[in-house]
Specification:
With 333 residues, this protein is an alpha+beta fold. The protein folds into 3 domains: 126 residues, no CATH class; 79 residues, Orthogonal Bundle (Arc Repressor Mutant, subunit A); 114 residues, no CATH class. It contains 12 helices and 13 strands. The strands form 3 sheets. The chain has a 7-stranded mixed sheet. The longest helix has 16 residues.
Length: 333
């Protein structure tokens, strides 16, 4: 009840100031959809709208399909911040919702709310930080998406592939299983790959990218002149150009397992805080195969993190050709 109460409080508190909310929790919810609470929204202190509410954490489309048959104009889903893909699914299927950040899509007897783009960190930074995945979890998700066979390896081997601790593997899988994103039964499998893609791409910019480290260098005129070692892998714009042939790379991101000083000697490039070549220690394990799918992930995440409209177009192209997600997450607003 405390979790539901907190989620409902955040959702109502973050609505525009002209909308006030009151709620009453059902003392004996029967487990059916939209029986968790009664919510009244008052607009401009005058018109009141009453809803039967479902309070639920949503991370994949299947969690929403269970609500379809019971959805009516006077029902309301109260949830965590939805991705653009899930929010569009709600509005396409007449599921009214408000989320913890105050985003809302509600249509009921003359009340029409469409609020989007609000981040829950704006008003409640502690709550958003708590919900944000950690660095180890992000590395685990990348390994699982890079090669689905990794999921079926012993936990110790998975830890090596993802370059994380054995404890982080166990903790990460517990969370993934609780959210019904993976199954750890006798035949381990990913249940919702699209949701995992969204988690990794959406949080790359704020969780993983700031922790990459590395060094900025003066780049040569042609990135193809840069000597590579066997385990070096391109990310960002160069990876995108290799995949599509559609982008002339300007910002260069190169992942390496070599010690940076040794790599600098091979590159013969000068450090420069404004340099276009970003030499980055690889964050995954040496034995993880960076195949076409993994390269597409590295490219798309960095392209979207750049907030460049041209890069976003190329990210969409890579998605169409390799990842096949219905929509890419909005990682920049």
């Amino acid at each position: 009840m405390n979790t539901n109460a907190t989620l409902l409080m955040l959702a109502i508190d973050n609505l525009p100031s002209h909308i006030q909310g009151e709620c009453t929790f059902d003392p004996k919810p029967d487990g059916k959809p939209y029986t968790d609470a009664q919510v009244t929204l008052t607009v401009h202190g005058e018109r009141c709208y009453q809803f039967s509410a479902e309070i639920k954490h949503i991370h994949r489309k299947e969690s929403l399909t269970a609500l379809l048959d019971a959805a009516r104009p006077d029902t309301l889903l109260v949830c965590n911040r939805l991705t653009a893909h899930l929010a569009d699914f709600c509005s396409s299927n007449a599921i009214n919702f408000i989320d913890e950040a105050g985003n809302a899509r509600v249509s009921c007897n003359g009340l029409n709310l469409w609020i989007e783009g609000k981040n829950s960190s704006e008003s409640h930074p502690a709550t958003q930080q708590q919900a944000k995945p950690g660095l180890g979890f992000m590395k685990l998700v990348f390994a699982l998406l890079a090669d689905e066979d990794v999921l079926r390896l012993p936990f110790r081997a998975i830890a090596e592939m993802a370059n994380i601790s054995l404890g982080m593997v166990s903790k990460g899988f517990k969370h993934l299983e609780s959210e019904k994103l993976v199954s750890l039964c006798s035949t381990r499998r990913i249940l919702d790959k699209e949701a995992l893609y969204h988690i990794w791409i959406e949080h790359y910019r704020t969780v993983l990218r700031p922790k990459l480290g590395g060094i900025r260098l003066v780049a040569p005129g042609d990135w193809r002149e840069i000597p590579l070692t066997p385990k070096d892998r391109w990310g960002g714009e160069v990876a995108a150009d290799e995949l599509t042939g559609y982008l002339q790379p300007y910002e260069l991101q190169l992942f390496t397992f070599e010690p940076l000083q040794k790599r600098l000697a091979l590159l013969k490039a000068k450090p420069d805080p404004a340099g276009r070549l970003w030499l980055v220690p690889a964050f995954w394990g040496k034995e993880l195969d960076i195949n076409i799918n993994a390269k597409a992930l590295l490219a798309v995440a960095e392209l979207l993190a750049s907030s460049d409209s041209r890069n976003k177009e190329v990210a969409e192209l890579i998605n169409e050709q390799y990842l096949h997600l219905k929509t890419l997450p909005e990682t920049w607003v």
